[in-house]
């Protein structure tokens, strides 16, 4: 099967032996001989002829190497006829190859390293992972040939062999599994390699010469204010791959061919409207046979350059009018208005040009393309229906996941070349996943590419991994995206202890919430819903809000990471707008708060008092993990803990507890009571991860609350180096005075204030307490 | 040496034909000869005058546009001539290459021997 003594193999090895250095030496020596020989002949020295002859004979192998040996062309369709030069050089004759020895031969090649580096595997560590069975080689080569065929490659490259070896090794599959990679990821990296290979082998194209340019008019003003996208592609080349034949480009071409003169390219930010313009330009250059589009040049207009040039009144209108006339007269221009909203509204850096553009569009004298977001397009339809009506809409849609991953991987390739880094495939996948979760304001593929660019500064030793992408999103969005580090993991495992440092009892509630936080941080929870959603039920003053604060402080880092809404203020139907406001009228709306701080506790106090329509919104938020604001932009609640509190059922809880029942015994019964009494709809109750009951605090628990509050007082007094202590009798007296079965521990703070703080304040003012003093207060000392 | 000579008188020699053809294609592309022929009588860089009102205006536009077309014709004709000359030149160079190529090894050896005699 492998005839490594074939003429092609010989040639390849000879070419490799000569190499670039040998070629340069041969060429140099030949030129030197010919020049010296010529000089000698002119000086009538006969030996000059011989030197010239030697020069010619040296030139021959140099020409041979350049035209034939450097890259031995494929000979026929057999395997030996298609093996690339690099393969023929790496494989040594006389070796009985098995998959294992084949890997040993090719694992240092650049193409193999492309695949292993992007999988973040050390190629040399895979030695020994492949079969020693020489009979298996036949199927390896057949599969490699099929792989080459699938990408229209005429040659079977080293990368194809490496790809098949990796695909067929069970040991490699096991290694990939440990790296959280699946066979589909290996296929994706191989696809990435094949696209890169194709791009490298694509020769620069020419799209017409001086005759084409002379058929169109002069465009001096457009050259000044515009950017000729087609000319840039001709000069520098471009490779838009699948985008050139995307539905968006196809629809745009079809619309122009059918007589449309103005097209609105509609798509959210990040979907690639500008890239579509470039892909259209390349498509028109390369393929357009249609007389309407043949030889057309796509020219982008720079709104900021036009605005900054308009220093006098009326100058702006004059420039734009002249540009439109010039483009129409040139006859071969498609004007592209990127960020077209800058031409639709007056404001800083923008201006309303619709009155100038409308006659141009109506005249059908030139072709125009406007890139707009759906929001801008709707705005235009509302404010200027006459102009919007002239535009043929072409809606760009997000590509499917596999296509987005390809686009992001290809963009990573450009980043690698430009920034001299290595972007692993797991980083590409992480950019896709994390941008989908956290970048709600942009569309794919733009948001994933942007996140990947932001990750470049988080690379370790020029390698961008999943951790780099996680670090980037953690920095930009303030969320926890990576896996928990040992210290954090330990804290999570002992979360209950930490919360109980500030919460008395309510062990069941604390355990339920802690479990949810651990599930979320370990990546076990449903990522499409909030981290946790709880309905806290119980009497006033038993620690519902305190637990929410404790979660904010322990899990989210600070009590400030709590967004608190008193739902009794949202009882009207019109209050729905206050919740969903995009920030233009209500800067403190729930949506705006979560957009600013997505990693927070959302506390909805007295949920039962909210308007039913607001409760319906809550259903959506709990179900889908997102809400949409009044501008149509989505906000994610997937990194929030949603806690709703209610006093509903408080009397029932109290009576059950007084009968000596445990919370677990009457949980379901209480939920039924609340549903049957109409206080909560069953669909709302069912949406919460847990309905958590809080029991009334017993006197001994209230005593612990007093001790916690006293610790806070001591914290304040520590600035004056004074400390206070209460005897057990004093604490019992405070509990007795502050205990109100209806209000739980809530009056306790007021009582403590009256009893302790007033007493201490008096002592300080009377100089009875000085820095360094430790005050012990007994029951008679308290001013109750 | 045998491999070199078999390539030289085999695919190497044949390669000159395809190389010459590639060069001619490149020349046609660079001059865009088909477009030049199609637009031979078109106004130069679309510099045209739109007809004004009245006979006078129409006559002036006709005159201006006629001049623009003449300028376009002359420039394109010269470019076409230049393209034709280049085309012939490339063909001759290719032909010369085909004739000289097999003589190169002989020339080398002949010069080597001639110098030594």
Description:
The complex is a heterodimer of chains A (784) and B (117). Helices cover 55% and strands 9% of the residues of chain A. With 784 residues, chain A is of the alpha/beta class. In chain A, the strands form 5 sheets. In chain A, strands 1-3-4-5-2-6 form a 6-stranded mixed sheet, sandwiched between helices. In chain A, strands 10-11-14-9-15 form a 5-stranded parallel sheet, with helices on both faces. Chain A has a two-stranded parallel ribbon with strand order 7-8. By secondary structure, chain B is mostly helical. Chain B has one domain (2-116). Chain B has helices at 2-8, 11-31, 33-38, 54-100, 103-116. In chain B, helix 2 packs antiparallel against helix 4 (54-100). The radius of gyration of chain B is 25 Å and the shape is rod-shaped. The two termini of chain B are 24 Å apart. The chains are: A alpha/beta (784), B mainly alpha (117). Chains A and B meet through helix 1, helix 2 and helix 11 of A and helix 1, helix 2, helix 3, helix 4 and helix 5 of B.
Sheet of most strands of chain B: none
Number of helices of chain A: 37
Please identify the oligomeric state: heterodimer
Beta-strand percent range of chain A: 5-15%
Q: Could you name the key traits of this structure?
A:
heterodimer, A: 784 residues, alpha/beta, Double Clp-N motif, Rossmann fold, six-stranded mixed sheet, five-stranded parallel sheet, 17 strands, 55% helix, 9% strand, B: 117 residues, mainly alpha, 5 helices, rod-shaped
């Amino acid at each position: 099967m492998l005839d490594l003594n074939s003429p092609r193999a010989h040639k390849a090895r000879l070419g490799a032996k000569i190499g670039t250095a040998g070629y340069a030496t041969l060429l140099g020596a030949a030129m030197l001989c010919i020049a010296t020989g010529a000089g000698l002949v002119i000086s009538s020295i006969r030996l000059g002829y011989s030197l010239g002859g030697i020069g010619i004979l040296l030139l021959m192998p140099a020409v041979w190497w350049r035209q034939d040996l450097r890259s031995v062309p494929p000979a026929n369709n057999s395997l030996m006829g298609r093996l690339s030069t690099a393969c023929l050089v790496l494989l040594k004759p006389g070796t009985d190859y098995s998959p294992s020895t084949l890997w040993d031969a090719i694992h240092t090649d650049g193409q193999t390293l492309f695949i292993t580096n992007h999988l973040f595997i050390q190629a040399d560590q895979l030695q020994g992972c492949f079969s020693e069975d020489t009979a298996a080689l036949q199927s390896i080569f057949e599969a490699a040939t099929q792989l080459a065929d699938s990408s229209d490659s005429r040659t079977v490259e080293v990368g194809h062999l490496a790809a098949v070896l990796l695909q067929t090794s069970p040991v490699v599959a096991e290694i990939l599994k440990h790296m959280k990679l699946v066979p589909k990821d290996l296929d994706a990296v191989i696809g990435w390699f094949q696209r890169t290979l194709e791009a490298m082998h694509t020769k620069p194209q020419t799209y017409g010469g001086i005759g084409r340019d002379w058929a169109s008019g002069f465009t001096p003003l457009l050259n000044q204010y515009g950017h000729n996208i087609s000319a840039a592609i001709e000069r520098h080349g471009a490779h838009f791959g699948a985008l050139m034949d995307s539905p968006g480009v196809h629809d745009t071409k079809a619309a122009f061919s059918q007589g449309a003169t103005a097209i609105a390219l509609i798509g959210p930010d990040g979907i690639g409207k500008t890239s579509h313009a470039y892909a259209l330009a390349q498509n028109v250059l390369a393929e357009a046979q249609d007389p309407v589009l043949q030889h057309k040049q796509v020219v982008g207009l720079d709104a900021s350059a036009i605005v900054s040039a308009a220093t006098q009144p009326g100058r702006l209108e004059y420039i734009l009018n002249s540009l439109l006339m010039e483009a129409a007269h040139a006859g071969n221009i498609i004007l592209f208005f990127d960020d077209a909203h800058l031409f639709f509204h007056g404001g800083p850096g923008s201006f309303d040009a619709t009155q100038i553009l409308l006659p141009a569009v109506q005249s059908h004298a030139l072709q125009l393309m406007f890139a707009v977001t759906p929001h801008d397009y709707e705005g235009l339809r509302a404010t200027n229906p006459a102009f919007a009506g002239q535009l043929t809409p072409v809606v760009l849609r997000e590509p499917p996941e596999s296509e987005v991953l390809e686009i992001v991987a290809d963009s990573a390739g450009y980043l690698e070349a430009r920034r001299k880094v290595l972007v692993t495939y797991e980083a590409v996948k992480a950019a896709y996943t994390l941008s989908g979760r956290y970048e709600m304001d942009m569309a794919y593929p733009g948001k994933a590419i942007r996140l990947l660019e932001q990750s470049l500064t988080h690379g370790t030793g020029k390698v961008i991994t999943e951790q780099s992408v996680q670090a980037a999103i953690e920095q930009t969005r303030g969320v926890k995206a990576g896996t928990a580090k040992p210290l954090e993991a330990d804290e999570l495992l002992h979360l209950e202890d930490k919360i109980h440092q500030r919460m008395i009892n309510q062990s069941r509630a604390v355990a339920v919430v802690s479990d949810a936080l651990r599930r979320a941080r370990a990546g076990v929870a449903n990522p499409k819903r909030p981290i946790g959603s709880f309905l806290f039920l119980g009497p006033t003053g038993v620690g519902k809000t305190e637990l929410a604060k404790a979660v904010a402080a322990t899990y989210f880092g600070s009590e400030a990471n709590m967004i608190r809404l008193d739902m009794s203020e949202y009882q009207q139907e019109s209050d729905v707008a206050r919740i969903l406001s995009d920030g233009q009228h209500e800067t403190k709306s729930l949506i705006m708060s979560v957009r600013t701080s997505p990693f927070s506790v959302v506390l909805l106090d007295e949920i039962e008092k909210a308007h039913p329509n607001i409760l319906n919104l809550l259903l959506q938020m709990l179900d889908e993990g997102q809400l949409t604001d009044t501008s149509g932009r989505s906000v994610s609640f997937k990194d929030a803990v949603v806690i709703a509190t209610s006093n509903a059922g408080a009397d029932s809880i109290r009576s059950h507890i007084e009968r000596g029942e445990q919370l677990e015994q009457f949980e379901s019964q209480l939920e039924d009571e609340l549903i049957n009494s109409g206080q909560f709809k069953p669909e709302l109750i069912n949406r919460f991860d847990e309905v958590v009951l809080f029991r009334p605090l017993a006197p001994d628990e209230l005593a612990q609350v007093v001790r916690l509050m006293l610790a806070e007082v001591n914290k304040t007094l520590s600035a004056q180096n004074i400390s206070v202590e209460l005897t057990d009798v004093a604490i019992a007296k405070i509990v007795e005075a502050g205990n109100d079965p209806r209000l739980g521990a809530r009056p306790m703070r007021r009582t403590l204030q009256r009893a302790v703080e007033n007493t201490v304040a008096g002592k300080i003012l009377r100089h009875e307490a000085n820095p360094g003093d430790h005050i012990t207060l007994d029951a008679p000392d308290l001013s109750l | 040496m045998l491999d070199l000579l078999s390539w030289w008188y085999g695919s190497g020699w044949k390669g000159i034909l395809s190389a010459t053809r590639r060069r001619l294609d490149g020349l046609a592309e660079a001059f865009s000869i088909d477009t030049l022929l199609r637009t031979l009588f078109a106004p130069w860089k679309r510099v045209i005058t739109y007809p004004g009102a009245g006979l006078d205006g129409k006559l002036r536009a006709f005159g201006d546009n006629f001049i623009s077309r003449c300028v376009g014709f002359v420039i394109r004709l010269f470019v076409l001539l230049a393209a034709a000359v280049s085309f012939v030149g490339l063909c001759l160079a290719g032909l010369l290459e085909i004739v000289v190529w097999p003589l190169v090894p002989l020339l080398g050896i002949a010069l080597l021997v001639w110098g030594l005699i």
